């Protein structure tokens, strides 16, 4: 178990590093956990990973909001979006048993392909921070997007960080750095709801989750620091890489069945 735990800690560090910048940490952490924790129920794997993830996400958010390079958040709209996402994540989780999750994969795959094409086509996409929504329109957009993406995260989940990033850039007009910071606040809300459920149902392996959480925090802090140092161009390229990885993963799962 010691060797497996060391490997899980390494994957948690890498997941936190990537997730802090553009989301997609689940691409690294979850498959590793499924392989390295054989015989553990999937729900327990998810609960254990959720504790690791929320620790890293919170650490990344703190890094984005502190120090001389602090990113200013539009707290009213992003906060409302986080509350709506957290509430609807719970609804999405409850809807899992009554709906077919497999029907969602082709829709998400198509959306990710469109996101990648649009980002490649618009060379200036996410390079400038120019919020285009204000007042009630901004709050309404935050509420609706938070509800939709929160429900998706509770119901299905993969690609949530990248979808949030694209929404903050494409709809709100943020640059990639401000979008990354804002996405972390929403991610904390949705992860908190999921973690509360797994803790209440005793589906967390704390002796695995806590070391992973420490490493996820270290990776997330380093990732957020690198994003702030390297700027929007670097984050844009990494965003395309992660979206491309999600497209390959979902494409394989969709068409191999």
From TrEMBL:
InterPro entries: TM_pro_TauE-like (IPR002781), TSUP (IPR052017). It comes from the Bacteria. It is a multi-pass membrane protein. Pfam families: TauE. It is found in: Cell membrane. Belongs to the 4-toluene sulfonate uptake permease (TSUP) (TC 2.A.102) family. This is Probable membrane transporter protein. It comes from Hymenobacter aranciens.
